[in-house]
Each structure stands twice: as C-alpha cells, then as structure tokens.
Amino acid sequence: MRRGISAVAMAAAIVLGVTACGGSGSDDTSDKGAAAKDPAAVSGTITYWDTSDAKNEAPTYQALIKDFEAKYPKIKVNYQNVDFGTVEQKFKAAAQSGKGAPDVIRTDVGLIPEYASLHYIAPLDGTAALSDTQDFLAGPMNTTKYEGKTYGVPSVTDTLGLLYNKDIFAKAGITAPPTTWDELIADSATIKAKVPGVAGTYVNPDSYFLFPVLFGEGADLADPAGKKVTINSPEAVKAVTEAKKIYDTSSLKIDFASAYDNMQTSFKTGKVAMLIQGPWSVGDDLTGSAFQGKESNLGYAPVPAGSTGKAQAPTGGHDLAVYQGSKNLDASYLFTQFMTSSASQQTIAGKNGTLPTRTSAYTPEVLKNQTIAGFKPIMDTARPRVALPQVGSLFTPLQQEYIKILQGKSSVQDGLDAAAKEFGKLLPGYTVQ
Amino acid sequence: MTATTPLKYRGRGERSRGASLALHGTLIVASVIAVFPVLWILFISLGPSSAWQQPHEVLHHLGLSNYRFVLLHSDFPKWFRNSLIVAGATTVLGVLVSASAGYAISRMRFPGHRTLMWTFLVTQMFPMAVLIVPLYNLLAQLDLIDTYLGLILVYCTIAVPFCAWMLKGYFDTIPRDIDEAGRVDGLTPFGTFWRLIVPLARPGLAVTAFYSFLTAWGEVAYAAQFMSSDHSTLAAGIRTFASDQRADWGSMTAASVLIAIPASLVFLLVQRHLVTGLTAGGTKG
Amino acid sequence: MTTATMDDPAAGTAARPPREPRPGLMTSIRRSWDRYWYAWAMIAPVVIVLAVLVFYPLGYGAYLSLTNANETNVAKDIGPVHIGATYHWVGLHNYWQVLSGRDGDFYPRLEWTLVWTVACVAITYSIGLGMAMLLNRKVKFRLFYRLCLIMPWAVPAFIGVFAWRLMLNSQYGVFNDIITSVGLPAQDWLGSPLSQKIAVIMVNIWVGVPFMMVALLGGLQSIPGELYEAAEMDGASPRQRFWNVTVPGLRPVTSTVVLLSTVWTFNMFAIIYLLLGNNTTGDTDILVTYAYEKAFTGVSDYSAAATYGIVILLILVAFSTFYRRQLKPEQA
C-alpha cells in the first residue's frame, strides 16, 4: 500500500510541478486577468504589439520606443513584433483569456469595430491617449469610432490609389492617368496595342481591392441604418460586372495562389502599366527594374470613378488601441499618446514613407517623400467602410464568390446573391433581397 | 552500409541490363522528384532577394546576402534557440513518456490497456485546431501560456500517442525471456525496462525521437498562437518574413534552408534505424 | 484555484482505467491496485497529459457544440468589463444544422474531403509500395536512393509546401520556365478549383510517400525469404508471388499505415492552406479547413467550429471501428 500512495503522490507532483514550472518560467506581468488593481501596484512595464514590417518599418518604431523610455524613465516598453497575418487571432485569444495580451496594440483600422464590440479594447475618450484631436485628419479619426465612442488613435493612414508607370504611358501616348474605369479599359487596350508585352493592369482578387469599384457605383457591403445586405443590389452588380470586364479585357491572368506577389512583381518589372494599390507597396515597387533609381517614373493618381462620377476608396491604415484588461492603463495611454504625436508621426513618415494621420505632421520636410506627396491628395477620395463588427467575416464569402465570378464559374448576379445569403447568416437581423 | 539489411530472398545475379536500367531509371526519377523542391529552395536562397522571380539570374548573382540578413539582422538566432529547446525537450520527454507507456502496454496486462491503445488512435482523430481558444484558456489557467513547457506539453500530445503506439509494437518483438532474466536478477519492472529493454529498442526509440523532433520542429499554428515573439519558434517566427502583403521570399528561402539543416541531421542520425524501427511498430500495431 | 478547475477532469479521465473494472468492494479495488499500480504508474504521464490537454478540451468542445456560444456571448472578464455568459443550450440543433445539409456547406465539403483522403491515401500507398519494392532489391547506390527518397519527410512540411508554391507559380515558377523552354504552352497550375485540387493532392503525396515507403520497406524485409523460395519452387510467376506472398505478408503493416494515414490525411490542415493561400473559391476546403475558417474569420463561431470538430471525430471513429472489424476475421 505504501508504494501505491507514493505513486499517487508522484502523479500529483507531476501535475503540481507542471503548474509551478509554468509559473516561474513565464515572464508575463499579469496575474488574475481581471479586476483593476490599485494604481500603486502598477509595475511600469507595458507590452506593445507592433504589426509593422519587421525588416523595413519596425526599426523606426523601436527607435521611437527608446525615445519614449527616455522621456518616461519609469515606464518600460516590451516591444513585440507580431506578423500581420496572425495578429487578429492571436490578440483575440489572448484578450478574451486575460493572459498574454498586450497593453497596446497596433491594429488594422478595419478591426476596430470588432475588437470594440467584443470589449477587448478600451474607450479612450477623455484619457491621455487622445490629445490634440482636432489635429487628426477626419478620415483616419473616423476609423476609431464605434457606437459613438473612440477606441483607437490613428497612427498611419492609407487608401487605395492608381499607381502607374509613366514610361509605359508615354510609350503608349497616354498623357493622363484614367479617371474612370472605362477609361482604364480603353487605356489598357491602347497600351496592349502600342507597347508589346505589357498589359494594362493586374486585378487583385482580394475582395478589399473590389471596394473602389463598388464605391464608384455607390454600392457597399451592407446598410447598417436600414439593416439591409446590399452586396447584391443593382449598383453592386453593376460594379462587379465592371470589375469582371476589367479583368477580362485589361488584366494579366491572375495566379490565384500567388496573386499579390505576382501583381507586385509584374508591376515593378514593367510588365503591367498600372495597379490599384496602396502606399505600403511603393517601397517594394522601388526595388524593381522599372523603378529602381528612377522613383519619378512612378505616377500617383486617385482610383478611377464609376458611373456615379465619384472616385472613392476605403480608408485603411493602422490605429493604436489599448487593451481593456491592461494592468497599466495610464502608462498605455501615455505610450499611445507619444507614438501618435505629431513629432513621432513625422519621424515615422520620414523613415518609413507611411502617411501621417495629423495635419500638422505634413510638414514640408515630410512632403519631400514622393510617396507621401503622391498619396496626400488621393486621401481626399478615402471614405470609411461600414463600421460593423462582422466586417472581417464578410470578406471571406465575398472573396470566394468574387473569385468564382472572375474565373467565370458564376455569373455576377448569382455570385453576389450567394454572397448576400452568406452575409445574411453573419448579420443577424439584416434583410437579404 | 546497405549490407545491414541482408537480402532475404532470391539470388539476383540474373537481372537483365534492361531491367537494371529501368530500375535505376525509376529510382533516379523518383529521387529527383523527392529532392528537387528542397534543392530549388537552396538554389533560390543563394540569389538576391528577388531571385524567385528570375531564377535564371541566380547564377549571375550568387551570394549569401539572404543568409546574412537572416542570421545577423533578424531574430532568427533567437527563434533557432527557442526551437532547439522546444524540439529537444519534446524529443526527450516524448520518447521517455511514450516508451514507458508502450512498455507497460506491451508487457503488463492491466485493466485498461486496450482502451489506452484505442485512445491513442482517437486523440489523432480530433482536429484540435478548432479548439485552439479553449486550449489557450486552459494553458492560461495553468500559467503555461508563453512558456516552453506549455508548448512542449502540447507537442507531446501530438507526438506521444503515435510514438507510444509504435513503441508498443516494437517492444512486442523483443522476447519476453529478457524480462524474465531481469526479474531473476532482482530488477524491478522499471529497472528491467530501463536497463535491459531500452537498449535493445534503440531502432524503435530512434524513430520515435525523429518523429517527436519533427513534430515540434515544424509546427506552426500552436507556436504562433501561444508564444510571444521572444519565445517564438522558427516555424512561427519566420512568418514575419512573409506576411500576406509583403513577402520577403529571399529571407524566407534562406531561413527554410537553415531550418531544414538540423532536421536533416537528426534524420541522418536515425535513418539507419528508420526501417526496422517504424515497421516493427507497424506490424504489431 | 487554477489547478482546482483542472483537477476534476484530469482525475476523472486519468482514473478511468482503474475504476473501470468490477464496481464495488474495496478489497477488489485494493487487490487490483496492488497488482497493477506499476503499470498504471508507467502510463500515468501519458494519461495525465492527454487527459488535461486533449480530453478536457475535447469534452469542453463537445459541450460547446450543444450550445450557441460564439465570441460575442461568452463570459467576459476583461479589466472593468464583467459580462456573464449569455449563450445557452441548444441541444442537437448545431448537429441538425450540419447534418441536414441546411448550412449548405457540409456535404460538398465532406464529398471533397472523402475524395481527397481516398486519393491521397491510395496513391501514396501505391507509390510507397512501389518504391519500397525497388529499394528492397539489391541495387547499387541503394543508400543514396533511400536518403533521397526520404528527403520530403526530413524537411518540415511547410518548407516543402512553400517550395512547391514557388515552383508552381504560373508566371514566375520554374515548371513553366521548363515547359516553355521546350516549346510547350505555360500552364496555370493553381488556376482553377480543379487544378488546385490536383495540386494539393500531388503535394500531399509528395509529403506522405516517404513514411509509407519506409514502413512498407520494413514490412517487406520482415517477410521470410523462405516463403518466396517456396513459391518460386512451386513455379509461381513474379505476379503470383506478389499477390500470394508479398501482399498477405504486408497485411499487418498495411492495415496500420492505411488507418493512420487516413486519419492524418482527413485532418491535414497545413498543406491546403499553405499551398493555396486565401484567394480560393472555397471549393478546395476540406472539413477541417472549413471548420477552422468558421472558428477564426471575424467574430469566432465557437459552437459551429466545435460541432464540425466532433462530427469529424465521429466520422473517423466510425471509419476506424468499421475498418478494424473488417480486417480482423481475415487476419485470423
């Protein structure tokens, strides 16, 4: 019997050992994941999850963090680079469990409504995080709002524009970038005829890149006010028909598994004359044979307009948000404020070429950057997406149907009807026509 | 060295030239298919960072710039260390735990041994990935989030059922007389297992080690979810080279080659035992 | 407190083997304990780890599948926010939703999952057997061939898949370079759902052959040579020797590797996702990738994902029970 007892004790020891080792091995500062602690216990260390490009952009943010720590010597920032593809899932798992979540997170603007509706991120109105708010551009500021409260602070902004290769345009005798989708199709035909081996454009099958076409016809995913799914409205059908026409007439054939890479490569090596793209891609463009050493060859224009005559593209970019369960909200607010200040934004813009979200950050110095100068006027065409928590879920069915349409496996109407049906499942209370 | 597995049937002197040619031809084609993708990555990694777009350019621009970036200017060395810790510990723990369980099931007719074998199979049927959030919460409660131990234990749950199942089969092939001898010498069952059986089971253990190591070395989803970037493993870490919208394939290929090297070394160490080890388990499973 | 919640299920499952035999008398329990504690001690580490990290979450998943839990209605205890759970018991509703085909996705996904599994396992097995038989002959450079052929197994799967993705690129991939240099038209290898399906099966076979080959090679080596000699003596042709000696001799290995690789292929998550990326029509999703998508795009649907997980488990349990039962009488 004594042996038996020792075996039980051994088993127990394993379980306990497991727990104990875990406790000592972990270096996270959180303890019970819940109730706000009294301010005296604040340790002064905050964790920041950065999603910027680890190779080209992150060093700028890391340098800024050094400055922050110098300014506030009692606060230490634990910098973590999390890759953009993983961050949503990773943050949500950590946020709901209360363990392993960062205090401050850099997040895609499209995720703010989702995080806010799930109570993962803290409202920032009246906190130190938001300072000098009238200085922020309206578009980016708009992305931080959910149900009347502010859940983020704009850090960088972007939108989609039309990037074009001026050399190819000159060779084809085109003097100005197209201003409507039909012009884009016509110009592509000219290019194809006059510049051998070059195609007009490369359509990105990611549904985010469908927005400019949708907006151009006044269409959108859904109408939150009327509680209606609008992705199969006549306007949307018209828009996607146009997109399909662009693909059929003006685009290189998409490689669906490597669309983004091939699109970029084709453009930067001069096989494609124009792209609907965002400012984040310019750095990569400049490494290609078409633009390396001749940055001036890259032209910037707003996205073409649809039949409504309006050229519009979604507001993108990144906001800083504060985790609701942060043990050190005060330090988090200060950090957020510091990183989004005009001075910080000027540094970031200067080093990374991303667009600031503050009016005052567009200094003459910053505007010397050609990407920023090129995209600044385009920002006027940016408009927010519908602020629905489920927006992230809507992209998948839309994308799948869009690809079927592009591949000719579904008609535009059928594809969008199918997408609308899926939207209906994801948006409770919404009507689907 | 192939002589370690003597041929068991039929003299083969009489194979015709044509047959020999066909045999070698088939094997060469198959080998090329097996090896080409790996060599291709190696080839691309030696070019400039955009080499994947212009493979024919690689030979004109051979260089180690991708490796230089990966080794000197990224967190690769840190991830590498983390991966070594995690994979090493998973291997040791996985082999120990599955060997002792495999031995118990092979030698001791205790109530529940059948259920246990069945359980090992069932654990591999459920797609744990869909429960990653409950699993996260569980690990958080145990304070195992972002710890090596947590990840090691999770990897053991993947590796151990297969390994224990396999080792049970291997132990079955070791004559029971040896156990008897141990008992006569006054060894405890565990002593018998540890002193007499384990040394004889080396091929089986080698395969188990290989399998456990590879499981931990190449796993992405759990590592990405549970570990912060300081404790990130290679497979999860190199994702920062290739996000959806800014893929740095140059670094990616160099990192892939560097990741494949230790895995291949482990493979070379155990490959002698691979055939005997794996099948003994398989035949009796 | 953290361990308290854990102890329950852990102890429950861990203790199941001991408690299972004949209920009742303390003495019989004690006797069985005295007899078997050694075995139980040796299996305890496995049982505890599996109970805590697999069976507890699995049980929890089974529970979730009977509710309508999703990310919006589970309990939240984040900083100043304390919201109780508002999801509720829905019985078998989720299963009905899936199995009746009302969600519209289950049967198409199941169909492709079955095609994928059968194709992968059958082809992988055939090629593995072929290679094993070649390697089992006396042949020069055998070690070299063997090392080459096992290579795909020695390299982490995601690297292999990554290599294939680069090579299959329609514009910049080496395959099309080779093809066009010989004058053939370039192919869009990953261009349509059908070609994508062929491609993922192909890559999965590439990854899976070495395991099969090694296992079957061992199986071939364990067939006593006398059997072949006897068959040859009886005048059996090579083909007859294959069917009458090799195939029956391999049966034990075959039954195991086929079962295992069916289970693994059915739930093979990484290859499809890594090879095709996000821009798919959804036709190439197998059940497990579909469930994963459900769980992780946008607001997570915990209960639906768990339901799919359990359905997958049940399908595989049913299959393996059936499979082993089929094999047993023949084996005897």
From TrEMBL, chain A:
<keyword id="KW-0813">Transport</keyword>
<feature type="signal peptide">
    <location>
        <begin position="1"/>
        <end position="20"/>
    </location>
</feature>
<keyword id="KW-0732">Signal</keyword>
<dbReference type="Pfam" id="PF01547">
    <property type="entry name" value="SBP_bac_1"/>
</dbReference>
<dbReference type="InterPro" id="IPR006059">
    <property type="entry name" value="SBP"/>
</dbReference>
<comment type="similarity">
    <text>Belongs to the bacterial solute-binding protein 1 family.</text>
</comment>
<protein>
    <submittedName>
        <fullName>Extracellular solute-binding protein</fullName>
    </submittedName>
</protein>
Automatic annotation (TrEMBL), chain B:
<keyword id="KW-0812">Transmembrane</keyword>
<feature type="transmembrane region" description="Helical">
    <location>
        <begin position="148"/>
        <end position="167"/>
    </location>
</feature>
<dbReference type="InterPro" id="IPR035906">
    <property type="entry name" value="MetI-like_sf"/>
</dbReference>
<feature type="transmembrane region" description="Helical">
    <location>
        <begin position="21"/>
        <end position="43"/>
    </location>
</feature>
<feature type="transmembrane region" description="Helical">
    <location>
        <begin position="249"/>
        <end position="270"/>
    </location>
</feature>
<keyword id="KW-0813">Transport</keyword>
<protein>
    <submittedName>
        <fullName>Carbohydrate ABC transporter permease</fullName>
    </submittedName>
</protein>
<feature type="transmembrane region" description="Helical">
    <location>
        <begin position="84"/>
        <end position="104"/>
    </location>
</feature>
<keyword id="KW-1003">Cell membrane</keyword>
<feature type="transmembrane region" description="Helical">
    <location>
        <begin position="204"/>
        <end position="224"/>
    </location>
</feature>
<keyword id="KW-0472">Membrane</keyword>
<comment type="similarity">
    <text>Belongs to the binding-protein-dependent transport system permease family. MalFG subfamily.</text>
</comment>
<dbReference type="InterPro" id="IPR050901">
    <property type="entry name" value="BP-dep_ABC_trans_perm"/>
</dbReference>
<feature type="transmembrane region" description="Helical">
    <location>
        <begin position="116"/>
        <end position="136"/>
    </location>
</feature>
<dbReference type="Pfam" id="PF00528">
    <property type="entry name" value="BPD_transp_1"/>
</dbReference>
TrEMBL record, chain C:
<feature type="transmembrane region" description="Helical">
    <location>
        <begin position="36"/>
        <end position="58"/>
    </location>
</feature>
<keyword id="KW-0472">Membrane</keyword>
<dbReference type="InterPro" id="IPR035906">
    <property type="entry name" value="MetI-like_sf"/>
</dbReference>
<dbReference type="Pfam" id="PF00528">
    <property type="entry name" value="BPD_transp_1"/>
</dbReference>
<feature type="transmembrane region" description="Helical">
    <location>
        <begin position="147"/>
        <end position="167"/>
    </location>
</feature>
<keyword id="KW-0812">Transmembrane</keyword>
<protein>
    <submittedName>
        <fullName>Sugar ABC transporter permease</fullName>
    </submittedName>
</protein>
<comment type="similarity">
    <text>Belongs to the binding-protein-dependent transport system permease family.</text>
</comment>
<dbReference type="InterPro" id="IPR000515">
    <property type="entry name" value="MetI-like"/>
</dbReference>
<feature type="transmembrane region" description="Helical">
    <location>
        <begin position="114"/>
        <end position="135"/>
    </location>
</feature>
<feature type="transmembrane region" description="Helical">
    <location>
        <begin position="257"/>
        <end position="276"/>
    </location>
</feature>
<keyword id="KW-1133">Transmembrane helix</keyword>
<keyword id="KW-1003">Cell membrane</keyword>
<feature type="domain" description="ABC transmembrane type-1">
    <location>
        <begin position="110"/>
        <end position="323"/>
    </location>
</feature>
<feature type="transmembrane region" description="Helical">
    <location>
        <begin position="198"/>
        <end position="220"/>
    </location>
</feature>
